[in-house]
Design brief:
Elements: H1 7-13, E1 24-29, H2 34-49, E2 52-57, H3 60-69, E3 78-82, H4 83-91, H5 111-114, E4 123-135, E5 156-159, H6 165-177, H7 184-192, E6 197-201, H8 204-212, E7 218-222, H9 226-230, E8 236-238, E9 246-254, H10 261-272, H11 274-282, H12 297-302, H13 307-311, E10 314-315, H14 318-335
Parallel strand pairs: 1-2, 1-3, 5-6, 9-10
Antiparallel strand pairs: 3-9, 4-7, 4-8, 4-9
Helix pairs in contact: 1-2, 4-14, 7-14
């Protein structure tokens, strides 16, 4: 791990003065791991910038609605969100393009994180892989297609279509079925096997309980949830299917016309720095998008880490999710959730 810079050195590097109380930055973030983020990111940044951070949390729908409701007079300065939600905000003209020249750590990012939704409307700060967690003492997983096989009938769970993991799972099932590029036949196939699915879950926490009780022995999950399984005391394994792993990225965006751009850029740049991304990775909060980050073997094992892993991810374009999601949900409700 690289040596962590002192706060004094970082303050110098970011060219800031430490006079608290006269500047405020309001950020909108996911609800998870906020105590850890406070320790790794928020408190150190406040010490450097001489400002106060106002942290707003909630689910993506709530947070996007607040940005839209306050478009004329933004109350959120920057937000972290999925690529498809960022694209939805961009299409509504609610966020502004980012000037990469104002991010000193921009060139340290993996190329796929530099302009993930086009027109420089967002920058990636973390990746996540998605694969299948399974009980290695009870079943062997070689393909995403195994999820709908006879061996797992009545012992498998799938993510609901409305979750982030839902379309990713359908994409990989389609790849296993030779139906790439069209999720409609995949949804129909799941509908035909719906009686074999224990549940269509919305949160990975639901899945942890079901798998610990052995009601489910295989299910797709994001790598960020892997820690909940590997430490459970049961022989859970992370599958490496022949079709590969699915993946996604969360991004930073800046609201349009917030008037607080300089401080928002400073915060985004600090978050993307090698020192902060390393700390967040070692705390197992998020996987780094900064390619200069060097993680310990233990942290790397639990995260989506390294060029080989990231470049091999099957990532669904944000525009495809956004443009087709309504049709997928309609078909899902008609054929799967009857």
């Amino acid at each position: 791990m690289k040596t962590t810079l002192s706060l004094l050195a970082l303050a110098s590097a970011f060219g800031t003065a430490a006079h608290a109380g006269d500047k405020t930055l309001t950020i909108s973030v996911y609800s998870f791991a906020q105590d850890e983020y406070k320790e790794a990111l928020y408190d150190p940044f406040e010490a450097i910038c001489g400002c106060d951070l106002v942290v707003e949390t909630g689910n993506s729908v709530e947070r996007m609605a607040k940005i839209e409701a306050n478009a004329a007079d933004p109350v959120i300065d920057m937000a972290v969100i999925s690529t498809q939600d960022a694209l939805a905000l961009a299409r509504k003209d609610l966020i502004q393009p980012l000037d990469s020249a104002k991010l000193s750590n921009f060139d340290k990012l993996y190329d796929s994180a530099k302009d993930p939704i086009g027109d420089h409307m967002a920058v990636g700060y973390t990746f996540y892989a998605s694969s299948i967690v399974y009980r290695s003492d009870l079943v062997d997983i070689q393909s995403w297609g195994d999820l709908l096989g006879e061996e797992l009938a009545g012992q498998v769970a799938l993510p609901n279509i409305t979750t982030t993991q839902g379309p990713l799972t359908l994409m990989m099932l389609g790849k296993a079925m030779g139906k790439e590029g069209d999720l409609a036949p995949v949804i129909s196939e799941i509908g035909a096997h719906s009686d074999d699915i224990v549940t269509f879950f919305s949160r990975s926490s639901e899945l942890v309980q079901l798998m610990n009780q052995q009601e489910v022995i295989a299910a797709p999950v994001g790598r960020f949830a892997w820690g909940s399984f590997k430490d459970a005391g049961l022989p859970f394994a992370w599958a490496e299917p022949e079709e590969g792993q699915a993946g996604g990225m969360n991004v930073m965006v800046m609201t349009k016309g917030n008037g607080n751009e300089d401080l928002a850029y400073q915060f985004m740049d600090y978050w993307l720095s090698t020192e902060v991304q390393t700390k967040i990775g070692e705390m197992l909060i998020d996987s780094p998008a900064n390619k200069e980050v060097e993680l310990s073997a233990e942290a790397a094992e639990n995260l989506t880490y390294g060029a080989d892993v990231i470049e091999a991810l099957n990532i669904m374009p944000a525009a495809e999710v956004l443009d087709k999601r309504e049709g997928w949900v309609e078909q899902w409700n008609a054929e799967v959730i009857q």
